């Protein structure tokens, strides 16, 4: 028995040094459960800082590698470096909670070698740190890679709930100068074409004009500061043709209106949760929503509608 135990320990040590010699960060392995088929279920509790790019490199060196699930929860003061669109080899599920997200624009001019693979993405109770100067440069140059602007079209379920944005490098300018700067950005944006929309009411968007999420069934945007319904959601069937559930509860919406869907063979209704907003009246065509094809069913409980 003692010899068998010694042999197992030696094999473990040999495996450790074999992975180390290949440049694999074995520290990640401690937080991942590996299945027989090579699937990796990873959970990290971040107290200081965590680098997604190092984790991505670790996945690149694994062979074989099945589906990857990554869950990250930050304690107070915890941050996560994770450039958009958060791709990695075989990454199917990504859940982030209570984190400060950094590096959003850092791969905007980098052609990704990772295809879309995410099926579930959840970002909850987090803050996205955005450099205003980087944003200005990206908008003015309009040279972002398509792999950056069209990210994660394989999603089936997307949750982006109770998130805020922190802007860095805000120049200290007089009010008139700041208006001139914003006007210059706006003019440049219009001249070069609205191919990419990074912001809407000072919040990060999770899609661009070029995206189409053919597989997305559920989209949760609850508890975000959304005062006006984005056009992409008004005409939801064009970008999210299979969407069955849309959560816009607790978003401070003051009004809403949906375009009549263009018939495309779908009969199943979409359910839209608009509970607890600031909506005081409904559109004149609201009674017809449920008769459209597909039908639109809306829950308005908790709104100040007379």
Summarize the structure.
Helix content is 24%, strand content 22%. With 306 residues, the protein is of the alpha/beta class.
Share of helical residues? 10-25%
Low-confidence stretches are: 7-25, 188-205
Q: Gyration radius, to the nearest Å? A: 23 Å
Q: State the major sheet.
A: 10 strands, mixed
What number is the mean pLDDT? 80
What spatial order of strands do you see in the largest sheet? 1-2-4-6-8-10-12-13-14-15
- Please report the total strand number as a whole number: 15
Number of helices: 8
How many domains, as an integer? Answer: 3
Q: What structural class is derived from the secondary structure elements?
A: alpha/beta
Order of helices and strands: HHEEEHEEEEEEHHEEHEHHEEE
Our estimate of the beta-strand percent is 15-25%
Shape: globular
Terminal Cα span: 78 Å
Description:
This protein has helices spanning 2-21, 26-29, 52-60, 132-141, 146-149, 175-191, 231-234, 236-239; strands spanning 32-34, 40-46, 49-51, 68-74, 79-81, 91-97, 100-102, 120-124, 127-131, 157-161, 164-168, 218-220, 245-247, 270-273, 296-299. 24% of the residues lie in helices and 22% in strands. It has three domains: 1-26; 31-216, no CATH class; 243-306, no CATH class. A hairpin with a 5-residue loop joins β1 and β2 (40-46). The radius of gyration is 23 Å and the shape is globular. The chain has 306 residues and is an alpha/beta fold. The strands form two sheets. It has a ten-stranded mixed beta sheet, with no helix packed on it. A five-stranded parallel beta sheet has the order 3-5-7-9-11.
